[in-house]
Request: fold
Amino acid sequence: MGRALIGVALLVLPLVAACSTPLPDPQSAGAQIYQVRCAGCHPLYAPRLLTAAMWQVQVDRMQREMLRRAVNPLTEQEQYLVLSYLKAHAAETPELGAPASSASPAP
Ligand code: HEC
Reply:
């Protein structure tokens, strides 16, 4: 009996994780903008995957990524709302192996 349960769990868990990672506080303005503006090039990263400081760096990088690909970058207000949202739900300690050294500012 235990085996069957484990089998079901193994089958269901990846599906749930892959389909739509439920975002925290999905109705907030930040979450809405995050879903609209940040899912165009890659799947959304869960806010808890990065720390607040890492989100700051990533969103800056993404602004440049958008400019490079001729996608409208975030407005100041959108950037503020997305960053506040991501930071509010960010990790205390990093979960995703982000290269700490790549955080150095561009020349
Ligand atoms: C114009 C396309 C584009 C948009 C729009 C975009 N990204 Fe990205 N993003 C990329 C590309 C390309 C990569 C992978 C290359 C890289 O990390 O520089 C990436 C990687 C990432 C990573 C992973 C970095 C890592 O170290 O693994 C995060 C986190 C991320 N994006 C967050 C965001 C957020 C937040 C937004 C919305 C503000 C966003 N992205 C919007 C193109 C985009």
